[in-house]
TrEMBL record:
Signal peptide: none annotated. Pfam families: LRR_8 (PF13855). It comes from the Eukaryota. Coiled coil: none annotated. SUPFAM superfamilies: L domain-like. InterPro entries: Leu-rich_rpt, LRR_dom_sf. Keywords: Leucine-rich repeat, Repeat. This is Leucine Rich Repeat family protein. PANTHER family: IG(IMMUNOGLOBULIN) AND LRR(LEUCINE RICH REPEAT) DOMAINS, RE50361P. The keyword Hydrolase does not apply.
């Protein structure tokens, strides 16, 4: 699912509901500054997550639920 370059600012829990077979998610080049804690609970098959070029200031706790994640891009954010 490619949602890159869409001016998305927040990812909320209900945004990904019903996508249980989702394996790749592209959220590159948005304005994401926050990802809700339970956001990825409904995407247990997610293997690639592209969050580069956003406004994140920390690694989202929600990523801890992605047990099958093989690739994570957090480049060009404001994480210190």
């Amino acid at each position: 699912l490619d949602l890159s370059s869409n001016r998305i600012a927040e990812i909320e829990e209900e945004n990904l509901q019903g996508l249980i077979s989702l394996t790749h998610l592209y959220l590159f080049n948005n304005s994401i500054y926050q990802i809700d804690m339970g956001t990825f609970e409904t995407t247990p098959q997610l293997q690639e997550l592209h969050l580069g070029k956003n406004l994140l200031i920390e690694v989202p706790f929600a990523l801890g639920r992605l047990f099958k994640l093989r690739y994570l891009d957090l480049s060009n954010n404001q994480i210190r």
